[in-house]
Amino acid sequence: MRAFSRWCALLVLLPGSLAAQEAYKVEELKQAPPSSISPEIAPALIARGYRIVDGQGKPFADLWLRKSIPATSKPSGAKGVIQFPFLAESELLGALQLHGEAHDYRDQAIAKGLYTLRYGHQPVNGDHLGVSPFGDYVLLLPGAKDKSLAALPRNQLETQSAETAGSSHPAVLFMLAVPATVAGTSPSMIHDAEKNVWRVVVPLNLKVPGESRSMVYPISIVVVGTSEAA
User: Fold this and answer.
1) How many domains does the chain fold into?
2) Can you tell me the distance from the alpha carbon of 68 to that of 209, in angstroms, rounded to the nearest whole number?
3) Residue 174 lies in a domain
4) Which domain holds residue 185?
5) Is residue 230 part of a domain?
6) Which of 77, 84, 198, 201 is most open to solvent, judged by the fewest CB atoms within 10 Å of its CB?
């Protein structure tokens, strides 16, 4: 899809006029995913999730991760601009519920509601030169339309994600490796004051080929802030 080659490099869940410098926090959510999630996807999600709250203590977004995420290999570092080469494109990572309208890097409105989260790569073309040193993203798809655990064809992945933003540009969350200075795999928030962004750190449960037990691997996702190219 040619429209996808022009999608913005970073979606930022920026609620209204809420300033990014406010202290965001993440806490355990003892609540199952909404009943509106697909009957096939719901059992694959961990029953308890995480809630991100803003500086005023108001719920911003709820996140539920997949119980077991297939990995193509054991994590062993980045491969070029891809930090998570062990994840297959369009693999389901979890689900996200927004408590209010959000806006992306292009000021596209992301409505309050439930979305599935799937892994994807930034297209390699001239439209994205200098936008980001990395190419890992989480695409948001409408929860009411994403009904299967199976990986989606690229065209379907891009089209459904674009529906989230109501435009020709898929809605994406920038995904980054967790800094070595962040200890452990417990959920936490990282504030990058220089870039003025907030990242949520969460543990993925990976099913690695040849391993009998799941491997816990932390990743971080930008949830508030803008691309430096914005």
Assistant:
1) 1
2) 12
3) yes
4) 2-224
5) no
6) 77
